[in-house]
Design goal:
132 residues; alpha+beta; Cytochrome C3; 2 domains; two-stranded antiparallel sheet; 34% helix
Length: 132
């Protein structure tokens, strides 16, 4: 066999394997995009926030996701656990501390902290609050 055919075959096999791994990895990792907008609290928000979920998957899931224990305290995310809507707990009716008492406040705290660590330009309002 000619070297170019061998190299081409090896490259094709590697691409197929890598492509399958990427497809499989994204299969159970949630939606491509999440719209963050309160349905419970009516604090004034300029626009909904659009989270490109798949673009954030370089992060570990537990960097953003967590659960609630029997004592109503935050518990760490465990792989495979059901992901609840953030507003299930982060709303004024649940008695959370003021700084995370609403979806807006909890999201700003979590997202802005990370964005500021990565690149201060990512912390501008228009990054998440886009037209779509």
């Amino acid at each position: 066999m000619r070297p170019s055919v061998v190299h081409g075959t090896i490259l094709a096999v590697c691409c197929a394997i890598f492509g399958a791994q990427v497809a499989f990895a994204n299969e159970d990792n949630g939606p491509e995009r999440v719209v963050i907008q309160s349905q419970i609290d009516t604090e004034k928000v300029a626009k909904p926030a659009y989270l490109p979920h798949q673009k954030h998957q370089w992060l570990e899931c537990d960097g953003c996701h967590h659960g609630k224990g029997a004592n109503r305290k935050m518990i760490d995310y465990v792989a495979g656990q059901k992901i609840e809507k953030c507003e299930t707990c982060h709303n004024r009716k649940t008695g959370m501390p003021e700084r995370i008492a609403t979806l807006k406040r909890a999201s700003h705290m979590l997202c802005m902290e990370c964005h500021l660590q990565q690149d201060k330009d990512l912390a501008r309002c228009g990054v998440c609050h886009t037209k779509k």
